[in-house]
């Protein structure tokens, strides 16, 4: 998931350099969404992994 975030971020930067504002904004938006999904899944996996070991 984090890999896809970095890919979309790089696409956004390259598109912004070449002047494609719409594509850059779309790719940056997707990168932001994927990053927050990654953070949520990471926190959930930390919490669930910790509980499974204590049972």
Indicate the radius of gyration in whole angstroms.
Answer: 16 Å
SSE series: HH
Model regions low in confidence, pLDDT < 50 over at least 5 residues = none
Counting H and I runs of at least 4 residues, what is the number of helices?
2
Derived from helix and strand composition plus strand pairing, the structural class reads mainly alpha
Could you say how many structural domains there are in total?
1
- Report the sheet with the most strands, covering strand number, pairing sense and barrel closure: none
Helical content class? over 70%
Walk me through this protein's architecture:
- There is one protein chain.
- The chain has 55 residues and is mainly α.
- The chain has one domain.
- The chain is 91% helix and 0% strand.
- α1 runs antiparallel to α2.
- It is rod-shaped and about 50 Å long.
- The mean pLDDT is 87.
Entry summary:
The protein has 55 residues and is an all-alpha fold. Helix content is 91%, strand content 0%.
Q: What are its keywords?
A:
single chain; mainly alpha; rod-shaped; 55 residues
What layout of secondary structure does this protein have?
Layout: H1 2-17, H2 21-54
């Amino acid at each position: 998931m984090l890999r896809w975030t970095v890919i979309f971020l790089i696409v956004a930067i390259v598109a912004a350099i070449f002047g494609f504002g719409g594509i850059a904004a779309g790719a940056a938006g997707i990168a932001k969404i994927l990053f927050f999904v990654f953070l949520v899944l990471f926190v959930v996996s930390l919490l669930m992994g910790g509980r499974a070991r204590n049972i």
